[in-house]
Amino acid sequence: MTALVAGLVDHHTHLLAAAAGTPYPWAGTTVREFHQRVWRCGSTPMDVAEPPRTDSPATQAARLRDGLAMAARAGLVEITEMGMRDWCYLDALTSLGERGPLPVRVRIYLASGLAERAGRAEIAARRADAGPWVRLDGIKFYADGWLGPRTCALGRHFDDAEDSGLLFTDPQALARRIEPLIADGWRIATHAIGDLGVQTVLDGYELAWGRDPGAIAAARPRIEHASVLSPDLIDRIATLGVQACIQPSFAVTDASQVPSALGQDRAGTAYSWARLAASGAGLLIGTDYPIEVLDPLVGLARLVNGRSDRPGFGTEGTAPEHSRLTVEQALRWGSDESAGRTGLSADPRSLDPAELDQLEVLATTAMPF
Fold first, then answer.
1. Which domain holds residue 222?
2. Rounded to 5°, angle at Cα 70 from 343 and 314
3. Global pTM exceeds 0.70
4. How far is CA 222 from the centre of its chain?
5. Cβ-based burial of 256 (10 A; exposed 0-12, middle 13-18, buried ≥19)
């Protein structure tokens, strides 16, 4: 028996780059060293150009179709590629879409560097000609680093390091960059993990929108990850109407290192998604694949139960209670009926939460835009 639910979506992934075999920007070094090098240059990771491709357009298109088919098998009907750094992906998707329906529909946020190098006229033309299965939604910026390599920007030092991370921008610089894009109707998303990074982004958004909470809420700018949040920051996100895109797997895979990175007094501010949801803030759910697992049902189990016991995903920690949501909340922010339908072996809302890992994907139906 198939239970049809609103189509499962991934609001933050790097599936296209992974499917194409694109190396990580930090290939040949470490994430920390890459972040430090970019920071010393006065740039951001979203401004680093992708190396030229040597494979043919036909090969690229075939790899992307395989990647989208993998997403559909996992139960997804839509993905959002967060930070596309080369036009070859859009060209390949447009070519595929001209031949017939795609396995899932695709939203794209351009990397800030690609958008600015191309110019406002070109990105507007590209947006108008993406086809029925692809939408260019917005532009992605980058404010700080990551928790694991201790490069996210914190208001005070890491508990186990002599620094407080890296801040790639300031509010004034971020506002200057996004203002012309706002005027052209682009949606803005900014990577921010540490509390100082999130504060910087919120300050920048307020400057860009003229400190008008109504205008900010109407534009629905995003913060990607929003991992370390004080109560004041949670209130600001909710009051301003900024959407936070969270990753269910982060609280699980980082469970063992949060206390050492932040100390016991700040550990409760990491991945405080239940508090964020209770504030009335708008949430979105994404995987950050291939950094974390693509499977939305594993993410669902991790978000609701604090872990997933499905075989094949390795040893994992257990997320604390403040990082967990209800099944209803998880489905609300991780699905979209307008994107299509996902057929599952049972309705997740009818199961004991401990049985979420036993769900099977039976079918998906993606809808064009």
1. 3-366
2. 95
3. yes
4. 9
5. exposed
The CATH number for 166's domain is 3.20.20.140
CA distance 367 to 369: 7
For 44-77, write each residue's pLDDT tens digit: 999 999 999 899 999 999 999 999 999 999 999 9
CB of 94 closer than 8 Å to CB of 134 = yes
How many CB atoms neighbour CB 131 within 10 A? Answer: 17
User: pLDDT (tens digit, 9 = 90+) per residue, 75-127?
Assistant: 999 999 999 999 999 999 999 999 999 999 999 999 999 999 999 999 999 99
Q: Which residues pair with 110 in a beta bridge?
A: 84, 139
Q: How many domains does the chain have?
A: 1
CA pair distance 329, 261, nearest whole angstrom: 29
